[in-house]
Design brief:
This protein has about 210 residues and is mainly α. The chain has helices spanning about 10-40, 40-50, 55-60, 60-80, 85-100, 100-115, 125-135, 145-160, 160-165, 165-170, 180-195. Helix 3 (about 55-60) crosses helix 4. The radius of gyration is 22 Å and the shape is globular.
Length: about 210
Amino acid sequence: MSARRAPDPDERLRDADRTRQALLDAARHEFADKGFAGARIGEIAERAGVNKQLISYYFGGKQGLYDTLVEQWLEREREMTDPAIPLEELVCRYLAVAHEQPELQRFFVRENLDAEHADVEPDLDADDVTDLRRRQAEGEIDPAIDPAFLLLLLQAAVSVGVLFPRDVRRYLDMDPTSEEFFRHADEQLRVIVRHLAAPPTRPQTKR
């Protein structure tokens, strides 16, 4: 009987990466469904098909798992956002994320709903708002529009299939998870965002 070969370091690393990713995928769904307080590490581990002790081993516990998910998103967001691209393209990149990972949108919605709103510190110069102000100054957004309020509207718009699936079926007769709805939403958002710019001033004709 031959001796069992010990896994080489690369195999162990790949196994560790797979385990970490399985836990992150499971946690994203669990937090989206139940929020941070309601999520249980045992159920996260069961979703991932691993021992729950590995959550502490890889992430230091539930909070570390949650923080890693947030940091992963922030890293992806930094890669997505490019000041040089038109606003319509930027908005539709967020729409694509919502379509690909609806549980990620529910994760953020749940985070908002569960937060102690009285403890939220105002951030009137948040990066996203500052970027919209810059775009407004460059003519992409009508001067009458409040960039901060516009940001809230756009956040809701890209998440509409996740937030209002019943209304999508009711008003559009489309499956909110379908490619058909995604293509329609992408097309309509581009049109709407293009219309945010102020119309060019027409020169007055002399009489």
